[in-house]
Structure formats: structure tokens, C-alpha cells
Specification:
Elements (H helix, E strand, L loop, with lengths): L6 H13 L4 H9 L5 H13 L1 H28 L9 E3 L3 H9 L5 E4 L7 H4 L2 H8 L3 E6 L15 E5 H10 L6 E2 L5 H7 L23 E6 L4 E5 L5 E7 L2 E6 L36 E5 L4 E4 L4 E6 L3 E6 L19
Parallel strand pairs: 1-2
Antiparallel strand pairs: 2-11, 3-4, 3-5, 6-13, 7-12, 8-11, 8-13, 9-10, 9-12
Length: 337
């Protein structure tokens, strides 16, 4: 055996692949391609198959397969709905309609007409942003295009600068994902941009107006900004103020197909899916919409979503719903899957 990795590392790999249902002959062939002799590969796979630890873990793997089957049933039933293949637009949904038909049923919806009273829709442009809080220091993510895992590594990309300078950059930029002000920068920016919250109404039909500032987030970026496929640990509203965004969404019940890696992130590039590398994505239902200014998109908890700015964009997001939204309190896989 010539591979430089320790044998125990390979043994973990063998056990994982057996529990995932990969055939022993395929695993042996992969070992042979990585420096194992035919005899070594056969011995290691046979040892894993006979291990009481692997045999015990097989029961857990079977329970997980049963749960995946359950989710598959939900997915098939959801696709049978008359509007199961689209993200519908609904004009000024009532509170009961929204919660009963979408929030409680874990279904996305675009709500129109609810932001008409927002001064932000007419006031927010580059000049207004500079004049209102241009001198305040804000936090922005930079260097995203040089890092394939820019979202996971977000803390490494933070930079402080005057808001005015950042607005100038966004206005002058062409299409780029290299810099973006996102919800991950919110802890500092909510105070720096506090005055802008006076230009939005609390959407009290669905949200808790007493908690709007602490659980709302400001996003600003040039055309081409991307948020890779991920899922949130809360239900979210995405309120589009300036510019358009393309959004692709995969239901929570299709999680098994999206190559979830660390925490809530996927390996799949939502802008151009490599189906040779990620063939299971063909089984995932992908719903797509273009969100325009004045529209409000409900992103249900657990739904995978990829977001791309088609123009220079400003977006507000909210998590302060009137109904229970503390699903993160019992989430335990932050550092692993």
C-alpha cells in the first residue's frame, strides 16, 4: 500500500461507504486505485463487513434510510399539488392564509402588495444611502471570488470601511461576486445603518413589530453576487427593495439529493449544476423565481436556496414571525453533518 493516509483513515472511509450502501466490489476497486493491493483491499473490506461496530451501525443506517423514504413520500405528494411545480405569487395574503397555507405547511410563496407603504421603495438609491449614513463604518465581505468556500469561510473575508466607499464600489462595479454586504455582517451594520430602518414598515400582518430591528438584516451588493445553496435554521422573509434577484429553491424533503456537506451547506454550484459530479441532483425538485422590487419571498425553514443578484440589489430579510420560529435551539450538527 503506497497511499500516504493512515490505515485507520481508510478504514473509516470503508465503513462509511458500506453504511451508505456502496457495493463491496466498488469499494475494493476504489482502494486498488489508491495504492492498495488486491489482497489488502479484499482483507480490509471483509474485515469491515465482519466488524461488530459496522454491523451495529447498520441498524442506525437502516433507520436513516426509513426516514429518507418518509421524506420521499412527502416530496412525491407535494409535487402532485396543482401548483407543486412553482413558487406562486399571492396578492396581500391575510394572516390566516399565510400561516395556514404556507408557514405551517413549509411551502414557499411570493407575496405582492405588502411593501407598498415602504418609503424605502422610492427613497433608497445610491445617493440616498451616501447622504443618510455614508460616514458610518460598516463591515463587508471581500475576496469571495478567490475562495471556493467563501460562504463557509465568511468570517475570514470581513473588512471594515466607510459605508460611502462601499456604496461607490457597488455603483461602479460590473458583474462580480467578490464583495457583498450580507446578513453575516449584521452585528456591526445594524447599528451603523440604524436610520434606514425608519424607511421600512414592520409588516405586522405576519411579523412581530416589537422585534423588527433585532431580527432583520440588510443586504447590499453589485450585480453577480451569489449566495450558494444552503438552508436556514429559521423561516425567513426576503423583501426586495432595489434590483432583481434570481432564486432557486429545493424542498427540505429533497435534502438527500443536494450533497449536504458541512452544517447547512451543499457542494452543488447552484449557478451551473455539474450533474456528472452530482447525479442525485437530477432527483431534486428545483423551483425558480425572479424576485422584483416590492415583492416578499417566504423561504420556509430547511428549504435549500441559491440566490444571485441580477442587478445591483438591496434586500431586507426578516425572521421575527408572529408564530414560533426558534427551530435552531435543538439543531446539533453545526460543525458536521
Amino acid at each position: 500500500m503506497t497511499d500516504s493516509r493512515p490505515k485507520d483513515q481508510w478504514r473509516r472511509w470503508i465503513a462509511e461507504n458500506l453504511l451508505l450502501g456502496n457495493p463491496p466490489e466498488v469499494i475494493r476497486a476504489a482502494l486498488g486505485s489508491n495504492g492498495f493491493t488486491e489482497e489488502e483491499a479484499a482483507r480490509e473490506v471483509a474485515g469491515a463487513l465482519a466488524s461488530p461496530y459496522v454491523l451495529g451501525a447498520t441498524r442506525v443506517a437502516n433507520r436513516l434510510r426509513k426516514r429518507e423514504w418518509t421524506l420521499t413520500v412527502y416530496g412525491r405528494l407535494a409535487r402532485m399539488r396543482a401548483d407543486g411545480g412553482e413558487i406562486v405569487r399571492r396578492e396581500r395574503l391575510s394572516r390566516d392564509e399565510f400561516f395556514e397555507e404556507y408557514y405551517f405547511q413549509n411551502r414557499p410563496v411570493i407575496i405582492t402588495g405588502m411593501l407598498k407603504s415602504w418609503p424605502a421603495l422610492t427613497k433608497w438609491d445610491f445617493d440616498y444611502l451616501r447622504e443618510t449614513c455614508g460616514g458610518n463604518e460598516v463591515e463587508v465581505q471581500f475576496g469571495r471570488e478567490s475562495d471556493e468556500n467563501y460562504e463557509i469561510n465568511g468570517p475570514k473575508h470581513k473588512r471594515l470601511m466607510p459605508f460611502r466607499e462601499y456604496v461607490d464600489m457597488v455603483e461602479a462595479a460590473g458583474t462580480t461576486n467578490d464583495f457583498y454586504m450580507t446578513a453575516n455582517n449584521a452585528s456591526r451594520n445594524q447599528q451603523a445603518l440604524d436610520v434606514l430602518w425608519d424607511d421600512i414598515d414592520p409588516i405586522s400582518e405576519y411579523l412581530d413589530g416589537d422585534d423588527v430591528r433585532g431580527r432583520s438584516f440588510f443586504w447590499l451588493g453589485p450585480p453577480g453576487t451569489k449566495t450558494p445553496y444552503h438552508h436556514d435554521l429559521t423561516n425567513n422573509f426576503m423583501a426586495q427593495v432595489m434590483g432583481r434577484k434570481k432564486v432557486r429553491m429545493v424542498p427540505m424533503h429533497d435534502t438527500a439529493h443536494v450533497y449536504n456537506t458541512l452544517h447547512c451547506y451543499s457542494e452543488v454550484d447552484g449557478s451551473d449544476v455539474d450533474y456528472d459530479r452530482f447525479p442525485a441532483m437530477r432527483k431534486a425538485q428545483v423551483l425558480e423565481c425572479t424576485l422584483a422590487p416590492g415583492e416578499l419571498l417566504f423561504i420556509p425553514i430547511g428549504w435549500w436556496h441559491y440566490v444571485e443578484g441580477l442587478d445591483a440589489t438591496i434586500t431586507m430579510s426578516f425572521t421575527n414571525f408572529l408564530k414560533y420560529n426558534d427551530f435552531a435551539s435543538d439543531y446539533t450538527t453545526y460543525q458536521h453533518l
